[in-house]
Amino acid sequence: MKTALKDMTLEELTEFFVSIGEKPYRARQVFRWLMNGAASWDEMTDLSLDLRKRLDAAAAIDCLRIADMAVSGIDGTRKYLFETADGLYIEAVLMEYYYGYSVCISSQAGCRMGCRFCASGRHGLARNLTPGEIADQYIICERDVRAGFGKTHITHLKHRDDEGRPRIGHIVVMGVGEPFDNYDNVMAFLKNVTDPQGRNLGRRQITVSTCGLMEGMRRFMDDLPQANLSLSLHAPNDEVRRRIMPAASACGIDELIGFAREYSRTTGRRFSFEYALFSGVNDSGACADELAGRLAGQGFHVNLIPANPVPGLGFEAPPPARVAAFAERLIVRGIRTTTRRELGSDIAAACGQLRSERILGGGP
Q1: pLDDT digit string (tens) for 44-64?
Q2: Residues 96 and 55 occupy one common structural domain
Q3: What is the pLDDT of residue 36?
Q4: Which three-class secondary structure string do you get for the chain?
Q5: How does pLDDT run across 161-211, given as a tens digit for each residue?
Q6: Res. 28 pLDDT band, cuts 50 70 90
Q7: Which domain holds residue 42?
């Protein structure tokens, strides 16, 4: 099997090139090409032809291949089903906002957190993704962006490359898997994508979402304080949360809110809670009032997510009026609240749905 160079940090890549008799600066050249989306060795024109041939024989550029794709006819959202070299499936979603492109990427092939409403963990955890497999979701999606995909809803494109072509400006690690259950590989990817020698993506353009693994959150606060951390809360109290999120039994809501206060004090960053609304489960006025009582006066942000229903799991989205009423009750209590725009509703854009369809139904 060929060596996956995208799995390496710049330091590790330097050791690799020295081991094959090349100068250390070759690592910086290749690292920059890889992180900026080169799809072939021939694109790396500052390398000798002999070195390109040697790399082609020994090393792989991409860790993933596109197995399937769905494009929303409503809003242009593009959902990718990627296949790993060992035949596993993962997903990424490329979204358009008025300011440009954002990509939601996966950190694991499957998930072991067991959230009752989520398609990601229906088939358990196959394995962690490598840094290169995480990076390729972003890199391959950005190739499509550079090739001119989309731009339907963009009115102010903020991020371009040196040649003026559009780039993906924001990364959200919120796809299949729990990022902090694969902490070291996720952090290696984030180190590579923010490295000035590589993609040089600003750390504030990165958001990592977790179901609340305390050890990972504390490490992240120390390792990458400039990035954004978002906690999937999804309930106003421990009883409801543990019923829909079994992993919540390890850490209560009061402890999570206490950490959120510490995080804001330590990093100077506003802490965000994700709250998916499920009809008849956590969307009542009483739930809104209880949530507001816990969070009021602390500067937190709540991002409401009308649930993207997954067939067979028994969770449905509330009607729009109920979502609006829930948001209003939070806002009246002084909670900064936004409601996520529903994207890709016609292409099963919820995490894990396309992957689950492929696992259950087979396919090419």
Answers
A1: 999 999 999 999 999 999 999
A2: no
A3: 92
A4: CCEEHHHCCHHHHHHHHHHCCCCCHHHHHHHHHHHCCCCCHHHCCCCCHHHHHHHHHHEECCCEEEEEEEECCCCCCEEEEEEECCCCEEEEEEEEECCEEEEEECCEEECCCCCCCCCCCCCCEEEECCHHHHHHHHHHHHHHHHCCCCCCCCCCCCCECCCCCECEEEEEECCCCCHHHHHHHHHHHHHHHHCCCCCCCCHHHEEEEECCCHHHHHHHHHHCCCCEEEEECCCCCHHHHHHHCHHHHHCCHHHHHHHHHHHHHHHCCCCEEEEEECCCCCCCHHHHHHHHHHHCCCCCEEEEEECCCCCCCCCCCCCHHHHHHHHHHHHHCCCEEEECCCCCCCCCCCCCHHHHHHHHHCCC
A5: 777 777 899 999 999 999 999 999 999 999 999 999 988 999 999 999 999
A6: very high
A7: 3-60
CATH number of 299's domain: 3.20.20.70
Domain count, the chain: 2
Catalytic residue among 22, 91, 178, 274: 91
Q: Last residue of a domain, which of 44, 60, 76?
A: 60
Q: Is 351 a catalytic residue?
A: yes
Tell me what the pLDDT averaged over the chain comes to: 90
Residues 110 and 147 occupy one common structural domain: yes
39 and 175 in a single domain? The answer is no
What pLDDT score does 363 carry?
47
91 is catalytic: yes
Q: Residues 207, 353: one domain? A: yes
215 and 246 in a single domain? The answer is yes
